[in-house]
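Newbie here. two chains, one complex. Structure please?
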Amino acid sequence: MVSDTSRLGFYLLLAPILLWLIVLIILPHIGLFIVSISEKIGPREYETGFDNYAAFFTEPLYWRTFARTAIMSILATALTLILGFPIAYYIAKLTRGRTKTTLFLMCMIPFWVSELVRTFGWMILLRETGVISNALQYLGLIDGPVEMLYNDAAIMVGLVYTSILFMVVPLVTTLDSLDDSLIEAGYDLGGTSTSIMREIVIPHAMPGIVSGCIVVFMLSLGNYLTPILLGGKDSLWFTGMIYTQFITRFNWELGSAFGFLLLALSSLVVFAGLKLSRQSLTETMGRT
Amino acid sequence: MKFSLVSSIAVVAALTAQMTQAETLRLLTWGGYAPEEVIAMFEAETGHTVEVTTSNNEEMIAKLRATNGSGFDLAQPSQDRITSAQEEFGIYKPIDMSKVNADLFIPSMLAATAGNTTYEGEIYGLPHVWGTSGLVVNTAMAGDVTDYIDLCDASFAGKVSYRLKRPTLIGFAYSMGLDPFAAYDDTDAYQGILDEVEAKLTECKSNVKTYWDGGDEIQNLLRSGEVVASMAWDTGGWQLNADNPDITFVAPEAGALGWIDTFVLPARGRADDAAYDWINFVMQPEIAAMITNTAGNFTAAVDGDAGVSADLKARYQGSFDQAAIDNIKWYPPVPAGLEALEGATLDRINAAN
């Protein structure tokens, strides 16, 4: 009797997450997969086959765009880590009490407005008649207006800015859990700042680094707004391509296939990243 | 007891009768085509309520395709995109001409749209708002730009913009002396035209500052002077002209590209009566003028231009003389499958360095 009630409770508690998974994730993906394996041969005529997947590998534009997107996302992740680590270290280890809360809050404030507004903010700063260009001219550092928008560097700035919070939060949590006495012991035993960082801090923070990197990489890879708004005429992004196939080309079949390839290839990159850093997914997600 | 049952049935019947009369019209349209004041007047007159969703051609078709034509009661795609979408996806239902007050429409436009939107013997579209794409030029800085191909002139390097969409392909083709509309039904000839345009646009790519996407984006670029000439819609040019007299819409020598946005009934719309009421309401001359004043484009309503603001009329006449009007290239219906060819061309231009 007791076990029956607890079992009922278990299923009741499980129901929302199961519903969420099945209705919002598994069912749409099954539908998407069915669409992706139908080839269009004429108006309202379809055949089953893998031609849409083949199109990705035979048309250089598609896989080059994917490779470009993946490489730029990895680069954005690395930059975010380099910028985010010192911030997280400072917040976690060098501040106490109210200062710590304030600094943490200041990292979060920009995320209270929507991504669209933040991206428009960058457009106002970077454009030819924008704030930075005008300020540089006013200071006499440059002669004419300079265009900083519509290139890959602008995309990179936007991506790092959009995702830095998701790097800082897991890092602060893991660094917080590192006992200060371990660092002190390192100094007592004659370690230098570099060796302590390498031997004690980074190994301890590894799960936070990896989980932050996974989140930032996924966010960058799946970002649509930032590359479209800040990027220029050569800045293709894979999600933009999926949108084009679905909306402007009415080619849902190819768009669905692209969606699945994005899912598969990004999982592959994350898997490779975990192998390289010798972390396991359970440990990474469990400890942060 | 019996009496109360009868009376409650009567009350329910009366309520349902009223419900069938007052419906909710879910309108899928473009920004500016359903101004607040027009909606308020319509709701007061008919008792229907109106829910507006603004969109564009591709998204309208995509939305209706996703639901097999339900979710909306009236949509407004351009006339050239109706028969192919109907053939491919079956998302519309035919117009019942007996419910439309045809006297409100300019006869030639009604007939032309009916001809262009006839699929398997049934008419699917009624004309509403028309306009053109052409050039929006800052005449003080780029007065020499009179045709699409002038955007590739090296003297404007980094200061021009256009969309990477099908109107650009067609405009450039006309500007290069080709006739894409005549080749619509001949896939090989059309591919040949696309290849020529692709070479030109690839060569021209270094001249382009950025490919614009939204109407606001190109207006900002022109207003700030970062872009001095672009391919864009007439109404955007006239709006900018109100702020800066140097910027205006120029009808290109090769001809502006004319579109007509229509009324169509989605296949599984639930409020057809409200939809017909809306059509007959907004085509009245004074309402049509109100829509022209907010959307910036003229309508297919008889005498619809009478109440239009004098400024807008002056700008329209400044951009279009009679020869330019006669030279407008009206989009014929796009055959199904043509967009796949254009898509491949646009992809290659986008990827070229």
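Moderator note: The CA atoms of residues 113 and 119 of chain A lie 10 Å apart. Chain A touches chain B at residues 43-44, 61, 64-65, 127-129, 147, 149-150, 228, 232-234, 236, 244, 246-252 (CB under 8 Å). Thread marked as resolved.
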